[in-house]
Design goal:
Radius of gyration: 12 Å
Number of helices: 4
Strand content: 15-25%
Helix content: 40-55%
Structural class: alpha+beta
Strand order of the largest sheet: 2-1-3-4
Oligomer: single chain
CATH architecture: 3-Layer(aba) Sandwich
Number of domains: 1
Order of helices and strands: EHEHEEHH
CATH class: Alpha Beta
CATH topology: Glutaredoxin
């Protein structure tokens, strides 16, 4: 099972959708980095990803991006490859 890390907030609908999509693919463990509870982690997220928005999703060491990026990978079939390494 790959390690999935997601920078997120509690009220972000894209974060909820990303989590739902990943759960639907069999991912039961998602390490959530809640930048609404730990705002000091937003800057490191921006430096690491180059993006300011949430969610920011990593599968193992691969930066997937946000929900739209995750959904696009799913539609193209590439997400299965990332999740089944």
């Amino acid at each position: 099972m790959p390690k999935v890390v997601m920078y997120c907030t509690a009220v972000c609908p894209y974060c909820v959708n990303a989590e739902r999509l990943l759960h639907g693919k069999g991912i039961t463990q998602i390490e959530k980095i809640r930048i609404d509870l730990q705002p000091e982690l937003r800057e490191p997220m921006i430096e690491k990803t180059g993006r300011r928005t949430v969610p920011q999703i990593y599968i193992d060491d691969h930066h997937v991006g946000g929900y739209d990026d995750l959904a696009a990978l799913d539609r193209s079939g590439e997400l299965a490859g990332l999740l089944n390494r």
